[in-house]
Every structure is written in C-alpha cells, then in structure tokens.
C-alpha cells in the first residue's frame, strides 16, 4: 500500500481508531502488527510468507542469543545461521541474476539466466533484512546479561510470547517497513508499551506529515514529469542547458521523494506514540562528502558503520586497512541499492571521495564548520554538484547511457526548451527554500517564540494549501525498488 | 489539546486559503488551456470534457490537435468545442473518452472531428491508465471541489499566463508534407476505429475525419497521398484535409518543436477549421 494512495487514506484512520480503542500494550501491538501485514500484502499478498519467515527466524535467533545458559559454541552457531539466512535471502532475491551473470559460464547462464532474472524482488527486503540483522547482532553483543533495552530474555512461555510479539511488531511496523528509516532494535523496542490518545504529539506528527507529503506529492511527483527525459531517446534531443537542469532536477527529486517518505514515516509513527530516527538532515547543505553521509540516509550510514565498518576493524588497524574498509563499506553500500554495477560504482566513487577528504583533512579529523562563510557556501555548492552528477548512475543504470549523457552534455546544441525548465525550476525551489530555512535557523532564533510560532503556522498552512491544489500525478517511491 | 493547537490553526488557515483560491480561479482568472506537463495538459482536457456541460463539437486526437485550444475558436461556428487532443495518446483513446461520457447517460455532441494522425495507434498501458483516471476518485473529487481541478493548479495557472505572454520567437519553420502511407489489409486499428465510429453514429453524432499539418510527418512530399482518403472511405465518413487545403495556398506554418504548431499557427488553423467544417 502506498502512503499517497486513497486506500491508505482509509486504512490509516481505521488503524488509528482500533489502536487507541484498547489501552493495553498487547492489544495495541497486535493491532499494529496485523495492520502492518495488511499494509505490506495489500497489492501482492504473495510477498508475505518471506516477511513471516524472516521475522520468525530472526525472532527465534534473538530469543536464543538472549537466553541465559547457552554455550558459546551454540551462540556462535545461532548467530552464523541467522546471518546466513538474512544475507542468503537478500542475495537470492536481489543479487542472484547479477552474481549468476558474473560467475556462470555462458552456456549455463543461457539456461538459468531467464529464470534468475524472473525472481521477483520483494518490496522492502533490503530494509527489513537489515533490521533483522540489527536485532540478531544486538542480541549477540548484549547477550543474556545486559539484554537489549526493552527486550529482556523471556523467563517463561508467557514472556516468550510477548518477546516474539515485540519482535514481530519491530520488524513489521508499517511506517518504516518498506523504505525505512532502518530502525535498530535498541532504539525502538524500549518504546513498546501502552499508548494513550491524550499523549499524541499532534503538532509534531501533523507537521511532519504535511511536509513529507508535500515533498513527495508536490515536489517529487511534479519533478518526475520533467526528469522522465533522463532516458537515452529523450536526452539526445535536448539542449545542453536542459541537460544540466535535468541533473539538478533529479537531485532534488530523489531527496524530496525519499526524504518525504521518511518524514511521513516519522509522522505516522508519532501518531501511534513511537519515535523513529531522523533519516535526512538537509543533506545539500553539506560542505564535504563526509558531512553528506552524516546527513543523507542517516539510518543506512549508521547501520553500515555499526554493523560493517566497525566489525571490519574501522580505523583501528592502520591507514591502509582503514581505506580498504572505507572502500568496501561504500562499495557494498552502493550495491545495497540495487543489483547493478552502476550502484556499486556510485558507492565506490563516494568511497574514493571520502578517502580523498580523509587524506586531505588529516586522517579523518573533522573540519566541519558551524557558521556560513563564503568559503562554506562555495564548498556546499561544489559538494552538491558532485553529488548531483553521481546521481546519474542511479537514474541511468546502463553505463553506456551515462557516457552518452556526458557526450551530449558537451556536444548537444545550445538553446533552451522552456517547458521542462519551468517544471524543474519551480518544483526544485521548495527544496532550496527548505534548506535555506534550516541554514537561517540562527536568524530565526532572534524572533520571539510567538513570532516563530506564527511564521511556522503560516508556512505549514501554505504548504498544505499547495499539497491540496498542486499535487503531481501519483508515482511510486524511488527507494521502493531497493 | 494544547499539543494540537498549531495543527488546528494550520488546518483552518489552509482551508481558508483553498476556498479563497477556488473563488479567485473561478471568478477572476481565465481558465488555463495549457499545462506545464503532458499529464496535466491531458488532465485539463479530460476534466473539461467530463465535468463541464457537453459542447456541440469535439476534437478527438493526439497532441497535434491538442494545440487547437478551445479559446482559438471563440467567435466562430465552432465556439462550442471540447478539445480531446491527448498528449502522448491518440484518437482511439480520445474516442473512448467521448463514448465513456455518452454511455454514462450524458448528452451527445453534434459532431466529432477525429484526427488521422496516430489513428493507427491502439491503446497501450498508458492510455488505459489515462482512461481509468477518467472515472477515478480524483476526477470525482475534482467535480465536487473545483480547487482540485488541474485548471486550478497554481503552477498551471502561472504557466498558462507565462505562455500567453511568450513571444513567437524560437520556432522552426515547417512545410506541410504529404503522407505516403497505405492501408494494408484490415488492420486492427482500423477495425477499432470503425467500431467506435459506428457507435457514435448510432447515437446520432456526425463523425468527420480531420487531417492537420504535422511538422515532421513522413517526409514524402506527395500531394497525391491518398492515405487519409482511403481511411475516410474505409470508415465511411467525410474527410476534412486541412493539410492539403493549406499547402497550395502557400501558407507558412510554424512549429514550436518541428512537430507541433505554435500558438499563432494553431490559432490560424483553428480559424481554417471553423470556416471549412461541413
């Protein structure tokens, strides 16, 4: 089910009413878990068994790892099996065709290739698999003595039932199920408990929902009408200025699309009394690629750092190993987005830039600045241009098309097609203003709190007005494909 | 309730803004006939057809006839006209829209002009989505709340305003060309067109095949082209060939992108159509 669909507009109030109809945590968790499965299986119920299986395996593994009196060997075996299951499922459903194409001899590929290519990609598999790994890893690290916060080891059958109910809820909670934020077990499970309607932070939730839906339905969905020209047949015909605008347009579109989805997820979770982690923090204000990755898809970069970079050794084993780890993490992070080499190249390019920055800035010492100087503005503009250029690998997964785009950028005629430029200019503007709003926070803080409140209220009313009157044609969320 | 005070203020202000905007676009601003994207241009045309009173004439076609916006016919014999020239689609989809409204019990127009350009294109997945949207929830909502119509989109209103003020420069001169195609056998598109034409005729609608100049149509300079004549004959309807009639007069037509008529040329073409229509 899509957040921007009419069916969701009916689904949400029904689930909200049912959730607060009971006061006990068991009822509320049951309602939200059941609703989450309805949400997930709405368009294709055939995808549900894999989600059930993934939840079951991770839940049982976590319970075993957190139980007292388990031998170290058994714990290691359980961890290995759980990780193998998670990574195996991801590899089979997402990367089988890519790996088969590389590893199999041509004759074998001819036979099995079509079958491998036809394996359906279950929506959200990358997100809920990573949450499963987080649960298992935290259970392994924290163990029976410490336990995961909010998930103590069960002492009897009744507690085991509640343990599993919490795990199923954590894995399936619909706001973050299909496209994140990727929630780590320790930051969510402790929040599970009875929720009261009187405690709902309406203002916080409504503002996030308005802004999230605006970014998706007004900015991203209108921009997509123009960035549809980012295909070989179309961009060959376009003047150079339009090609540059397309790059910027897609850069704003992908942020509005994914950032909008994340904000909707945060707002929805708030309605049910839960806090999800921030996923985007004005990434196009970044003054370095390092800072960009602290602001873009924060839940993924945090996950990669915690569960991949640090276990690989991080920066604790010398310079060479640090760079190798950095490349590897970014390569795999790129590949996480999709089974195409262009994603891996995209990730590796970011890895190279991170390494270069690390080399230039004195072994990772942060040189981020708090204030906005002219130099900071120039750096932010440069970083934005580099990041925008690299998004091309996302939009055009075929390398030859990327090269052709670069050729067209150099050789296509001058001139201008005003219609797409109008769309890109107009609908990119809110993202620019949104970033400026953040950058101007010190200025806003000089206003009295009532003035700030009034200004904010008027702005959100204007955004809601545009959401009602100026939404684009509904499109899928870009990150659903990952 | 203090945790909802700001939300209530936001909602109240935005409701006032929507109602105010609805009044402004309904009373003060001209209704836009052009939109910034194909999707919204089609939406404008579909909403005008499905939500406004049925006009006497309908132009069913592709993006080529889509340029002949209803305002260009003001003061002519075809002043009451709906334009269903759909960007990215073809006349068969437009005819489906015409029939959809009539089979839903709506009154029939007197005459339907069916553009020949892209008549040989049967409905694809995009066309089917477009047809579904014609009776979807959004369309019904737009019927109830005019602020949600495509014509009320602030970005579309601004675009139409800017487009009206755009100077005529930057165009590509074109020359009406002939069409060297032939109808081979009994193609599917012809059967589909015949079926739709028959249904319209049974409802008492006059159907006229219309050929408009297309900038880069098959580059065969052939005044002897008989494709349009042949199609008209096989469908058993009259042909109004504005391409042939304007070409010998030596008229120069301008195309904004080598394919679609500029505003001035489209206006001239609309006048010709109104004068020559049977």
Write up this protein.
The complex is a heterodimer of chains A (482) and B (278). With 482 residues, chain A is mostly helical. Chain A contains 22 helices and no strands. Chain A has helices spanning 6-21, 25-41, 48-66, 72-103, 106-117, 125-146, 157-172, 174-177, 185-188, 202-227, 232-235, 240-271, 289-295, 298-309, 319-336, 341-360, 374-390, 392-395, 399-411, 418-439, 441-444, 449-469. The mean pLDDT of chain A is 89. With 278 residues, chain B is an alpha/beta fold. Chain B has one domain: Rossmann fold (3-Layer(aba) Sandwich). Chain B has 11 helices and 7 strands. Chain B has helices at 5-27, 38-51, 63-66, 91-103, 125-134, 137-144, 154-164, 188-202, 227-235, 242-246, 263-276; strands at 57-61, 81-85, 111-115, 172-174, 206-211, 238-241, 253-255. In chain B, the strands form 2 sheets. A 5-stranded parallel sheet of chain B has the order 2-1-3-5-6. In chain B, strands 4-7 form a two-stranded antiparallel ribbon. In chain B, β1 (57-61), α3 (63-66) and β2 (81-85) form a beta-alpha-beta unit. The longest helix of chain B is centred in the N-terminal third of the chain and has 23 residues, at 5-27. Classes of the chains: A mainly alpha (482), B alpha/beta (278). At the A-B interface, α10, α20 and α22 of A face α1, α2 and α7 of B.
